[in-house]
Amino acid sequence: MFLDDALTAPERAAVAAVDPGSDIVSAQDREIYVWYPAGMSGSQTAELLGRALRNTVTDRNWNTVLKLEEAARSISA
Description:
By secondary structure, this protein is α+β, with helices and mostly antiparallel strands. It contains three helices and four strands. Strands 1-4 form a two-stranded antiparallel sheet. Strands 2-3 form a two-stranded antiparallel sheet. Strand 2 (24-27) and strand 3 (32-35) form a beta hairpin. The protein is globular and about 45 Å long. The two termini are 26 Å apart.
């Protein structure tokens, strides 16, 4: 998940309070990494995190992130 701004202390607390079930959540500065061992489909973690943050956030799977990086590199080349 990519955020507009760095997580504040209250936002970090809100993220820590989310029960991700079997998913694994790691909050960083402006990113939140989520591993969905059972797959993203059917998981409510992203929705719960979005509600907890009340911040502009978008989430993408890793393959999409890599494709976006490749596209950005080709534009800047």
